[in-house]
């Protein structure tokens, strides 16, 4: 059976993708991850002993890690490895440039050398910048990133396309909207708000909370990635969205309501710099070409997600009490 090399598989979406591959396909999986603050090997404890799964600790920016991969056999490479938090990219952009751009190029060189069947770059709708009230991002929308994070992702996308055009490397890029679900690091909006609300701590809403994100359940995203990997046209970009736009304030109130917590926990704090106002995705291309559409209804998905965090308090606690605590205090004491 074919082998998929997943990079960044110990993070939020990568670990969900590995669970999905092990449970719903017959691929072998190699997971290379540097285990940064965002990577958690415990996300994969239930597949650890599966004979189809293998973990390698390694950094995609390091030549030694890449050399290790040259000696392995794999047919596909799906790259999730990245620095992913916009606020961190504003505080300290350097690591974003290294991992997201140079790390991607290392994986492209490796893919060329190994002559693999397909390289999949997991990108984001944030490369398109921000929308006003009207319109949706299509694959043809111009790249207009605003944060160091989104600019690093857009740069990587251009290099991926250059390797297709110049060297005929078979590639796809997926650009998905905001994911939610199990194993998301509690610096991102939904797990952060759940964690704070459970502890009766303030919920920091940036600006006036009117910003809009298009939420997609991570299971829908993972299913789409596999379809693109197997059936996507080489050189093509595929957008994915959840068809579920929510204003941040509305979403935070929904979380409080489900948890039975008061809205008085909400604190309006200083806005994020260059805060993109609205993301919304036109996913008609993947719907028409690959018959993909999101299936999880937001009202069900958010209840299940909240239940997951409530049932996995130990997982959450270990993260919140570690390195993240210092970062958290630094971020929010200044607001
Ligand atoms: P995450 O921050 O939860 O996980 C990132 C993973 O990459 C971690 O396991 C980390 O240890 C690993 N990593 C970081 N630097 C590395 C390096 N130099 N070498 C090897 N591994 C490294 O991120 P996520 O939310 O799961 O996002 C995964 C991918 O999906 C990213 O490329 C991101 O841009 C993209 N994406 C995320 C979302 C979202 O809503 N979370 C939406 C669209 C696209
Ligand atoms: P985030 O989860 O960081 O994802 P992204 O910025 O990549 O879309 O943030 C989602 C939205 O929530 C974004 O508009 C910023 C906002 N936000 C807050 O209002 N408070 C917070 O504490 C966080 C982390 C985000």
- What's the number of helices? 12
Number of strands: 13
Helix content: 40-55%
- As laid out across the biggest beta sheet, the strand order is 3-2-1-4-5-6-11
Give the low-confidence spans. none
Q: Gyration radius, to the nearest Å?
A: 19 Å
CATH fold naming: Rossmann fold
Question: Largest beta sheet, briefly?
Answer: 7 strands, parallel
Any overview of this molecule?
The chain has one domain: Rossmann fold (3-Layer(aba) Sandwich). 46% of the residues are buried. Helix 1 packs across helix 7, helix 4 runs parallel beside helix 5 and helix 6 runs parallel beside helix 8. The chain is an alpha/beta fold and 335 residues long. It is globular and about 55 Å long. The protein has a 7-stranded parallel β-sheet with strand order 3-2-1-4-5-6-11, sandwiched between helices. A two-stranded parallel ribbon has the order 7-10. The protein has a two-stranded parallel sheet with strand order 8-13. The chain is built from 12 helices and 13 strands. The structure holds nicotinamide-adenine-dinucleotide (NAD) and thymidine-5'-diphosphate (TYD). Nicotinamide-adenine-dinucleotide binds next to helix 1, helix 4 and strand 5.
Give the key terms.
single chain; 335 residues; alpha/beta; Rossmann fold; seven-stranded parallel beta sheet; two-stranded parallel sheet; 12 helices; 13 strands; 43% helix; binds nicotinamide-adenine-dinucleotide; binds thymidine-5'-diphosphate
Task: Give the secondary structure arrangement, pairings included.
Blueprint: E1 3-7, H1 12-24, E2 28-33, E3 53-57, H2 63-70, E4 76-79, H3 86-91, H4 94-114, E5 118-124, H5 148-167, E6 171-176, E7 179-180, H6 189-198, E8 203-206, E9 212-214, E10 216-217, H7 218-231, E11 236-240, E12 245-247, H8 248-259, E13 266-269, H9 284-290, H10 298-311, H11 313-320, H12 323-333
Parallel strand pairs: 1-2, 1-4, 2-3, 4-5, 5-6, 6-11, 7-10, 8-13
Antiparallel strand pairs: 9-12
This protein binds nicotinamide-adenine-dinucleotide and thymidine-5'-diphosphate.
């Amino acid at each position: 059976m074919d082998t998929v090399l997943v990079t960044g598989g110990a993070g939020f979406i990568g670990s969900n993708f590995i669970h999905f591959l092990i449970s719903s396909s017959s691929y072998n999986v190699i997971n290379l991850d540097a285990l940064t603050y965002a990577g958690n090997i415990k996300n994969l404890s239930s597949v650890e002993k599966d004979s189809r799964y293998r973990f390698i600790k390694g950094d995609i920016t390091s030549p030694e890690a890449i050399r290790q991969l040259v000696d392995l056999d794999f047919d596909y490479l799906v790259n999730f490895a990245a620095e992913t938090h916009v606020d961190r990219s504003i505080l300290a952009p350097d690591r974003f440039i290294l991992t997201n751009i140079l790390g991607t190029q290392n994986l492209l060189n490796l893919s060329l050398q190994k002559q693999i069947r397909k390289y999949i770059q997991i990108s984001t709708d944030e490369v398109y910048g921000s929308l006003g009230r009207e319109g949706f991002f299509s694959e043809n929308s111009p790249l207009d990133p605003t944060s160091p994070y989104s600019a690093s992702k857009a740069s990587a996308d251009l290099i991926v396309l250059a390797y297709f055009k110049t060297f005929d490397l078979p590639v796809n890029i997926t650009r998905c909207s905001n994911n939610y679900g199990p194993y998301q690091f509690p610096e991102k909006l939904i797990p952060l708000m759940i964690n704070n609300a459970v502890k009766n701590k303030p919920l920091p809403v940036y600006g006036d909370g009117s910003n809009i994100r298009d939420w997609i359940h991570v299971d829908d995203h993972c299913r789409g990635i596999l379809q693109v990997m197997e059936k996507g046209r080489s050189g093509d970009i595929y957008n994915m969205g959840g068809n579920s736009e929510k204003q941040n304030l509305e979403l935070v109130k929904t979380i409080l309501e489900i948890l039975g917590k008061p809205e008085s926990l909400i604190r309006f704090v200083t806005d994020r710099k260059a805060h993109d106002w609205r993301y919304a995705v036109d996913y008609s291309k993947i719907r028409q070409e690959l018959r993909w559409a999101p299936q999880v209804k937001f009202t069900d998905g958010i209840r299940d997600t909240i239940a997951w965090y409530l049932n996995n308090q130990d997982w959450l606690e270990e993260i919140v009490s570690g390195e993240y605590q210092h970062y958290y205090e630094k971020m929010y004491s200044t607001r």
